[in-house]
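Proteins fold reproducibly. Look at a sample protein:
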Amino acid sequence: MPAVPLSIIEPIWEQFAVLLPDREVNHPLGCHNPRIPDRVVFDKLVQVLVFGCAYSKIADDSCSATTIRRRRDEWIASGVMESLRRIVLDAYDRMIGLDLSDVAVDGCITKAPCGGEKAGKSPVDRGKQGIKRSVVVDANGIPIGAITAPANRHDSPLLDETLDTLGILRELPERMSAHLDRGYDHRSTHEKLRDRGFLAEISQRGKSAPLTATKRWVVERTNSWNNAHKKLVWCTERVDSVIDFWIAFSGVIIIVRRLIRKGWTRYRWEGRPCRRP
């Protein structure tokens, strides 16, 4: 059984393949081993993302762990995954429509047992190494942008940089509401949102605020979707750009899955699943 249903991964691969830079498949003198097809490496990376295991555990006779890492670094250098994330986000906006009247922001702390450039002492895991992922989503939980920081960074100082990721969108509504938890309930946060033209919907400190009573629950759901990709939950990567690659890859899969699920009742296309995914 594939790590991700074929109805989701096939359209992702087709667009991904178009973005790949042209390159000779074999050495011109014929004295080297044939280059491993990009699709084989792509499928291996999907397995690494979903299962969270080491490259050596995914490698087999068709593709070595060294090839997986080397090809991953080539794609990071070319910016293919980030370009793909912009494309799928734009496709969702055109076909379904992003609901930007309400956005939600929250952070999620995950493990980073190997340390690295974005690791810090986790306040929720006995000071072990961890990474904080700050995510902004639309009213339906579609991930628009995400940044990473050490786990011991507070959510509030990350708000500006997280909201800056909205800049990839073509235009924003004039009036937008930002839904945040009580950890953001500070004067500086209110001032930041007011300067950006946002209406602040922040749970007050010291008062109970059930998650279902606000519009913030969608970002918690999106964090759970990301955490279903175990590479993000137990991140052994040490380099910042590699971590961002995996977060972008996870976001692409989430957006395409939601696009197919929403579009299943609106559109007909070749290869459409028999049942809504």
Remarks:
- The domain at 99-239 is CATH 3.30.420.10 (Nucleotidyltransferase; domain 5).
- Residues 240-263 form the longest helix (24 residues).
- The chain has a mean pLDDT of 90.
